[in-house]
């Protein structure tokens, strides 16, 4: 099946972001994409100072648009971090998924909050405004099971392993790495998660905006279970496409059967909730 990643240029105007995103989703569908993913924070600038201003409830304005365009195009639509979600007085970094009938199939709240301090380069603390999610998120398609994470979640190998145990063959991470962590770890982490779990990994970023308060790295990428980069964007707004070959995935797992050769008598990863 064909996967499309939309590397959107995000402005400060929510309505413009939504309109452009939906237009690119339609374009991707017209080119045969069956699963389409938007980047983290596609409808608002990324930054703790913006989260409260742009927050919505679910369902709300943004998710209603995503539901409509998923149904119109008859696709599976991964809505990036569609919105900062407001629920019960708390804010969450939330990714929603809609099916071809417009129904919401999953709602993933970012599990690991991005609190970092690299002296002289970047300091950022999501926990100043956001609360962490407490669950894994998997959705089914006619093609395969898909596991969801958001940005910083990709650094935690155990989470990807749980998704592998649940039968996922594709992991999608909407993310917004920056100009410090992006060149160092963006592709490396994707290749690591793909090889460790023998799955396809797709990470979709906003386009780079040098004038923004937080500058995203871009370079949305798809990696196959052999660890090869099979599609990659530059820094500008674009849509990248790749065909997810589940036969190739099965062949790789047969050739190097790590899943059946794990020493579960000596170690294990378990989901606690």
From TrEMBL:
<dbReference type="Pfam" id="PF00795">
    <property type="entry name" value="CN_hydrolase"/>
</dbReference>
<feature type="domain" description="CN hydrolase">
    <location>
        <begin position="1"/>
        <end position="246"/>
    </location>
</feature>
<dbReference type="GO" id="GO:0006107">
    <property type="term" value="P:oxaloacetate metabolic process"/>
</dbReference>
<dbReference type="GO" id="GO:0006541">
    <property type="term" value="P:glutamine metabolic process"/>
</dbReference>
<dbReference type="GO" id="GO:0006528">
    <property type="term" value="P:asparagine metabolic process"/>
</dbReference>
<dbReference type="GO" id="GO:0005739">
    <property type="term" value="C:mitochondrion"/>
</dbReference>
<dbReference type="InterPro" id="IPR003010">
    <property type="entry name" value="C-N_Hydrolase"/>
</dbReference>
<dbReference type="InterPro" id="IPR045254">
    <property type="entry name" value="Nit1/2_C-N_Hydrolase"/>
</dbReference>
<protein>
    <recommendedName>
        <fullName>omega-amidase</fullName>
        <ecNumber>3.5.1.3</ecNumber>
    </recommendedName>
</protein>
<dbReference type="InterPro" id="IPR036526">
    <property type="entry name" value="C-N_Hydrolase_sf"/>
</dbReference>
<comment type="similarity">
    <text>Belongs to the carbon-nitrogen hydrolase superfamily. NIT1/NIT2 family.</text>
</comment>
<dbReference type="GO" id="GO:0050152">
    <property type="term" value="F:omega-amidase activity"/>
</dbReference>
<keyword id="KW-0378">Hydrolase</keyword>
């Amino acid at each position: 099946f064909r996967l499309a990643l939309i590397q959107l240029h995000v402005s400060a105007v929510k309505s413009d972001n939504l309109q452009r995103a939906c237009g690119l989703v339609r374009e991707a569908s017209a080119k045969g994409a069956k699963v389409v993913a938007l980047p983290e924070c596609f409808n608002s600038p990324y930054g703790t100072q913006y989260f409260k201003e742009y927050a919505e409830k679910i369902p709300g304005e943004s998710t209603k648009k995503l539901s409509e365009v998923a149904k119109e195009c008859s696709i599976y639509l991964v809505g990036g971090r569609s919105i900062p979600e407001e629920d019960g007085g708390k804010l969450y970094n939330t990714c929603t998924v809609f099916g071809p009938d417009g129904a919401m199939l999953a709602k993933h709240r970012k599990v690991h909050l991005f609190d970092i301090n690299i002296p002289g380069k970047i300091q950022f603390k999501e926990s100043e405004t956001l609360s962490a999610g407490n669950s894994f998120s998997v959705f089914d398609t006619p093609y395969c099971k898909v596991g969801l994470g958001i940005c910083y979640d990709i650094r935690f190998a155990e989470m990807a392993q749980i998704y592998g145990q649940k039968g996922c063959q594709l992991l999608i991470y909407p993310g917004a790495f920056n100009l410090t962590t992006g060149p160092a770890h963006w592709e490396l982490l994707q290749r690591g998660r793909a090889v460790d779990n023998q799955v396809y990994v797709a990470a979709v970023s906003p386009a780079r905006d040098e004038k923004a308060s937080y500058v995203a790295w871009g370079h949305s990428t798809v990696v196959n279970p052999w660890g090869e980069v099979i599609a990659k964007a530059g820094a500008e707004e674009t849509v990248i496409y790749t065909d997810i070959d589940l036969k190739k995935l099965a062949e790789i797992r047969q050739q190097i059967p790590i899943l059946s050769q794990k020493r579960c008598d000596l170690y294990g990863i378990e989901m606690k909730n």
